[in-house]
Amino acid sequence: MRQKQVILLFSALLLLIFTAGYMRSLELEDASVRMAAFPLSGPGFTARSVPLTDFESDILGAADGYKWIYSWKGLRYAITILDGTHNRQAVHDPRYCFRGAGWDIVDDQVISYAGGSARQLKLTRQGGSSEALFFYSNGEIVFDAPLEYWLRATLRRWLRQYGGAEPVLVMIQPLNPGVGIDRALNEFLPMLPIP
Question: What domain of life is recorded for the organism (predicted)?
Fold first, then answer.
């Protein structure tokens, strides 16, 4: 290689490094506006916000977490939404969290939900069983794959405002013992907007 080519190559590399550093310093719009619009009451349901535990806050780091307990027709559901705009690594496959909390996943199905797909889990542990539902959403598209979340979040960081809204992770679990997720899926969740 001639000296001019080497200088040109290193100049291009430095320009790329400075551009990437500048792009990382720009703030991305998070999902807080969508979360503020999430209803806490409606036809037959009410909700109360629940603060994150110290452990949850430590795990999330700079990511934002929102947690509510919804009451509907005498049943209670925990809805947790994680926004990884400021810490994408905090949003991951929730099956790891369920296993870490002592649950065994006995069934894991992809189901149709809100024009996309979600994952319905049947869980057991000593002392009981439960079900859970999780999906990722950017406010328009619902999908169940953690890999798709990572690809969409990465593309958004590269394309900035042209990459769409930030995808969030949504997890729903009944708090009443022995209650499944099907009733909420068919009757309650359609009353809520896609976050």
Answer: Bacteria
